[in-house]
Amino acid sequence: MTDPMHPDPCGQIDITVCIPVYNSAGEIARSVQSIITQTTTAQVEILLCDDGSTDETRAIIAGLQRQHPNIRLLVNDRNRGRPFSRNRLVAEARGRYLTWLDADDEKYPEMMDRQFQMLERLVAENGPEAIDGVLVFTNFHWLWPSEDAPKLMTPPEGDHHMEELLNARFGGYLWLMMGTTETFRTVGPFDTALPRLQDLDFFVRFVQKCGRFRRIESDAPQCIYYKDDRARGAMQVWQSWCHIWSKHRQIFNAYGPENALRWRRHHYRVARRFAKANRDWLTYWFIAAQEVFFIARARARTGFGV
């Protein structure tokens, strides 16, 4: 049997793992190693896109490539932003299925096999059309720098995908998902105007196209997300929320003014949290003032929401 991490170059790739990277020298080897140690027997391609790193990221990846021939590296001509890198990765993916990993997170050993086997079982039982527009997700661990133990996160599964995305109950992260590569291409490119929150925008468009989320048949966490708001610009976060609000305003408002107002205020709170973590008090109070203005304007227009 062919080693899944040393696939036959002329054979079929089952899964492409897409990893956008930028100045990730301190974490990238650990993240890639979490793919290399997966228990799956599927043929795996590890595809990275470096977005103009100025540290040792590319040298570390080159060392990994010498040991693992299933690793491919794309290099942007300059720093283009994560959405641009994501679009290159989707375009270059060779696998039937596609999944993601951020350069500082890790998958637990059984994650990819559980997702792969569920997709294959759906096809065996109901035909290839059974996984058209399906993304298979898992529970995960969430770890803050200040915490000793990770928290178990359990995104809800049900028939109200859009509402769960908008109210932030469904932690829609790309690295939780596996689906056909064609599904990712059908939804369309990642929005290059979004330095943050590309996954939320992608999932909103995915559900608009009648996409469905399916949880694997296990409640155990399958990966770990190292959550850290430090060194991440609060203004970028706030501007990304504003862009998503403007782009999908009709969808937010379709759930009524009370929900729309509450969800929009959540956007402001998250942006302020980033500002506080970075002690960026000027941005913190700017966003707070914008929230007050938004609430006053919304209530003046409708008497309650937007």
TrEMBL record:
The keyword Transferase applies. It holds the Pfam family Glycos_transf_2. Residues 16-121 form the Glycosyltransferase 2-like domain. GO terms for molecular function: transferase activity. CDD domains: Glyco_tranf_GTA_type. Keywords: Transferase. It comes from the Bacteria. This is Glycosyltransferase involved in cell wall bisynthesis.
